[in-house]
């Protein structure tokens, strides 16, 4: 029984960074803005968290620094996709490339090549988990209530499903999308910060390692609901926990094959359930009142 609880503990811990990323993506995409760039945002959040924690000596100030920086990143992303109406897939891919490049460059400029120079404090644990783990679970509950039981949540879903209806009652569709993009980006950044300040206590180049794409798959797999997304994230977290178990057991399988498990689960889940997880009708479609969409 102890081994089962130990496995579940690893699953929840390892999936928390993906959970934050997925919840941020969920908010953005329900508002109608596609986000392929979560990978880059998580990298920026991971790096910003370490920088902020290194400067202030406080892990929570590091997390706050990550929130601010990724919020600004989201504002830029919103300007490109909402105001300039650039192709959202292209902008997302560009953000991933930018995130990897800028974090690698600044990491080497600020800390040098020695990863030990970025050692910072980690989040404190309460019981079996770090504090952000409980925040992530609470956020699932709060987002479920917010998105489906409040007027603001209805407006966000309306902006992604039928923006013309939102506009017809005098609300600004693009303002709703901007707020959703910035808020979602900050949550994604918190996922990156948890990776560097919770799972680890340092930053390494390209440390997100595909978790942004897994988070996007979790939103689709979870049918665009907060609870469904969390359950999907736990499935992918189980895959990562299996990696740790198999590596520790030395079962004779090549390490490269074992490391593929979470990504294979992602591909299988999207292939099997992706067609059932239809997103909002206006997802990825820029809104322009003048075009009378």
Description:
The chain is mostly helical and 293 residues long. It has a domain at 16-216. 73% of the residues lie in helices and 1% in strands. The protein has helices at residues 2-30, 38-56, 59-83, 88-111, 131-149, 151-161, 163-168, 173-199, 211-221, 226-249, 255-259, 261-273; strands at 125-126, 129-130. Strands 1-2 form a two-stranded antiparallel ribbon. Helix 1 (2-30) crosses helix 5 (131-149), helix 2 packs parallel to helix 4 (88-111) and helix 10 (226-249) runs antiparallel to helix 12. The longest helix has 29 residues, at 2-30. It is globular. The protein starts with a helix and ends in a 20-residue tail after the last helix.
* Sheet with the most strands: spatial strand order: 1-2
Task: Summarize the amount of helix as a percent range.
Answer: over 70%
What value does the Rg take, in angstroms?
19 Å
Are there runs of 5+ residues with pLDDT below 50, and where? none
Mean pLDDT: 90
Instruction: Summarize the main sheet.
Output: 2 strands, antiparallel
Based on CA inertia axes, which overall geometry fits?
globular
Structural class: mainly alpha
Keywords summarizing the entry:
globular; mainly alpha; 73% helix; 293 residues
Present the secondary structure layout:
Layout: H1 2-30, H2 38-56, H3 59-83, H4 88-111, E1 125-126, E2 129-130, H5 131-149, H6 151-161, H7 163-168, H8 173-199, H9 211-221, H10 226-249, H11 255-259, H12 261-273
Antiparallel strand pairs: 1-2
């Amino acid at each position: 029984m102890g081994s089962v609880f130990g496995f579940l503990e690893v699953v929840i811990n390892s999936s928390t960074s993906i959970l934050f990323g997925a919840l941020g993506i969920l908010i953005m995409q329900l508002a109608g803005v596609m986000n392929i760039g979560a990978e880059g945002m998580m990298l920026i959040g991971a790096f910003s968290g370490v920088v902020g924690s290194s400067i202030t000596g406080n892990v929570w100030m590091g997390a706050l620094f990550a929130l601010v920086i990724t919020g600004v990143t989201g504002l830029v992303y919103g300007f490109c996709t909402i105001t300039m109406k650039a192709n959202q897939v292209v902008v997302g891919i560009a953000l991933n490339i930018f995130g990897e490049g800028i974090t690698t460059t600044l990491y080497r400029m600020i800390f040098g090549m020695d990863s030990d120079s970025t050692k910072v404090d980690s989040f404190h644990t309460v019981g079996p988990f770090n504090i952000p783990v409980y925040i992530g679970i609470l956020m699932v509950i709060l987002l479920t209530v917010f998105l489906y039981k409040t007027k603001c949540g209805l407006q966000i879903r309306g902006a992604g499903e039928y923006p013309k209806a939102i506009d017809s009652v005098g609300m600004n569709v693009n303002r709703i999308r901007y707020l959703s993009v910035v808020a979602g980006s900050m949550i994604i950044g918190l996922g990156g910060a948890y990776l560097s300040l919770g799972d680890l206590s340092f930053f390494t180049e390209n440390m997100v390692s595909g978790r942004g794409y897994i988070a996007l798959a979790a939103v689709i797999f979870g049918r665009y609901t907060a609870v469904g997304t969390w359950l999907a994230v736990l499935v992918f977290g189980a895959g990562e926990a299996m990696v740790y178990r198999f590596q520790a057991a030395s079962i004779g399988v090549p390490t490269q094959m074992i490391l593929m498990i979470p990504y294979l689960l992602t591909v299988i889940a999207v292939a099997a359930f992706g067609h059932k997880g239809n997103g909002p009708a206006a997802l990825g479609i820029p809104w322009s009142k003048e075009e009378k969409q």
